[in-house]
Design goal:
By secondary structure, the protein is α/β, with parallel strands linked by helices. The protein is built from 18 helices and 13 strands. The chain has 2 domains: 195 residues, Glycogen Phosphorylase B (Rossmann fold, 3-Layer(aba) Sandwich), CATH 3.40.50.2000; 173 residues, Glycogen Phosphorylase B (Rossmann fold), CATH 3.40.50. 45% of the residues lie in helices and 15% in strands. The strands form 3 sheets. Strands 10-9-8-11-12-13 form a 6-stranded parallel sheet, sandwiched between helices. Helix 3 links the parallel strand 4 and strand 5. Helix 2 packs parallel to helix 3.
Length: 377
C-alpha cells in the first residue's frame, strides 16, 4: 500500500458528521478523506456539501424525500433507507475496492448505527460513531433496532462515543469498550462571540433574553420551556427559539406558544448567528428527556451563557469552570424557569475557561488526540 484513505459513511445533511469529516480532512493525517452518502439534500435540510468535497454516491435518496420534516417523512425516509440497504452496501464495497486498487489502505468511519450496518454488509473495515439515540433510546422500543445495533457494533474495529453514559450503553449491547472522544467545539469562535456581544449593552441584564437552541421534537420538550416562559416575572424578557431540526407535527402543536408576546421563532441559524444569540442571552435552556453529550450546551457556556438543564450524567464530567455555569432544574416546579433566570443574573456574565476545559473541548485538540485512538494514527 502506498497511502492511507478514510471514507466517512454518513448522511450528507448531518451537521456533526460533516463537521467531523471536514476537521479530519484538515488534520492531514490521511492522504485522502472522502465522504460516501445516500442523502445530500431534501426535507428542507441545509445543503452542507459542495464542489470542494470528495463525494462518493451510495443509492441517492434525496430526490425521493418529502419537502419538509415530519413523522411521516421520517418513516418514509427509513423505509427508503432499508429498501436501499443492500444496494448502498454494494456501492460502498465498490468504492473501497477502487481505493485498494489505487494502493490506498482504506478505513471507513460510519456515523450512526445504520451506516455501520451498511459497512458491515459491504464487508469493509470500519470504525463506528453511534448517535446517542442509537443506543440510549431506540433499542428500548424496538427489538429489531436492538439487533441492528448489535450487528453494527460487533464488527466495528473501534467505537467512539462522547460520554461514559453512552459507553456503558454500548457495552451493555455489544460487550465492546469504546473510545471516548468529546464533541469538540470551535472554542476560539465561541470566546470571540462572548467578547464581542456579551457587553453590547452597558448593563447586560437590561435587555434580557432566554434562548432554546435544541431541535423542535418531543425529546427536547420545548413546549415545556415555552409554557414556563409565561410565568416569568423578572422584568421584560424575550424568549428566543432556534433549532437545527424541526418535526413539523410537533411544531404545529406549538403554534399558539410560539405566537405568545415576546416569543421569537428564529428557525435554523448559522453557527455565527447562533453564537451571537448565545453570547447575548441571559440564559440558555436545554431540558431533553434523553441526552448524551450536548454540544450546543458546551457552545453556550463558551459563549458566556448560563445554562439551565435537567440532571444528567454528562454534568458530572464537566471541568469546574464549565460546571459552574450549569443550573440544574426540576421542571415539575412551575416557576423553574423564573428561578433559573434569577440565578443566571447573579453569575459572572463572562466565562473564563480553565485549562482542562480547553484541553477537553477545543475541537482541534480533542479530535487530534481522539483520531490517534480511533484510527490508529
Amino acid at each position: 500500500m502506498v497511502g492511507k484513505s478514510l471514507i466517512f459513511v454518513c448522511s450528507g445533511v448531518d451537521y456533526h458528521a460533516i463537521d467531523w469529516y471536514r476537521r479530519v480532512k484538515n488534520l492531514k493525517i490521511f492522504d485522502e478523506v472522502k465522504i460516501a452518502t445516500d442523502i445530500k439534500s431534501g426535507e428542507s435540510y441545509d445543503v452542507l456539501l459542495d464542489e470542494s468535497d470528495d463525494i462518493l454516491d451510495l443509492v441517492s435518496l434525496g430526490p425521493l424525500l418529502f419537502d419538509t420534516q415530519s413523522r411521516a417523512g421520517n418513516l418514509w425516509r427509513n423505509i427508503l433507507k432499508f429498501l436501499s440497504l443492500p444496494f448502498s452496501a454494494l456501492k460502498l464495497w465498490w468504492h473501497v475496492r477502487r481505493e485498494y486498487k489505487k494502493g490506498k489502505e482504506t478505513t471507513c468511519h460510519a456515523h450512526s448505527i445504520f451506516y455501520g450496518v451498511v459497512c458491515r454488509l459491504a464487508g469493509v473495515p470500519y470504525v463506528l460513531t453511534p448517535m446517542g439515540s442509537d443506543v440510549l433510546v431506540r433499542p428500548e422500543y424496538s427489538q429489531l433496532y436492538t439487533k441492528l445495533a448489535v450487528y453494527s457494533l460487533k464488527k466495528a474495529q473501534r467505537i467512539s462515543v462522547d460520554s461514559e453514559h453512552l459507553a456503558d450503553a454500548v457495552f451493555r449491547l455489544s460487550g465492546k469498550t469504546s473510545v471516548l472522544i468529546q464533541n469538540g467545539i470551535n472554542t476560539a469562535a465561541a470566546l470571540e462571540a462572548q467578547n464581542t456581544y456579551r457587553f453590547v449593552q452597558q448593563e447586560w441584564t437590561q435587555n434580557m433574553s432566554i434562548l432554546s437552541p435544541r431541535a423542535l421534537d418531543e425529546n427536547y420538550r420545548v413546549d415545556k420551556i415555552l409554557a414556563s416562559y409565561q410565568s416569568i416575572t423578572e422584568g421584560t424578557v424575550e424568549m428566543l427559539v432556534a433549532y437545527p431540526f424541526v418535526e413539523e407535527g410537533y411544531k404545529s402543536r406549538l403554534n399558539s406558544l410560539l405566537s405568545l408576546p415576546g416569543v421569537h421563532d428564529l428557525g435554523r441559524l448559522s453557527r455565527d448567528q447562533l453564537y451571537r444569540y448565545m453570547a447575548s442571552a441571559s440564559l440558555v435552556v436545554s431540558i431533553p428527556y434523553s441526552d448524551s453529550s450536548p454540544r450546543s450546551v458546551y457552545e453556550a457556556i463558551f459563549c458566556g451563557a448560563a445554562v439551565a438543564t435537567v440532571n444528567n450524567s454528562w454534568i458530572k464530567m464537566l471541568p469546574r469552570s464549565m460546571r459552574e455555569r450549569v443550573i440544574q432544574v426540576n421542571i415539575d416546579e412551575g416557576d423553574w424557569l423564573n428561578k433559573s433566570l434569577l440565578i443566571a443574573k447573579n453569575m459572572d456574565p463572562l466565562f473564563s475557561p480553565c485549562e482542562q476545559a480547553l484541553a477537553i473541548f477545543d475541537e482541534e485538540k480533542s479530535l487530534r488526540t481522539g483520531s490517534a485512538l480511533l484510527y490508529g494514527y
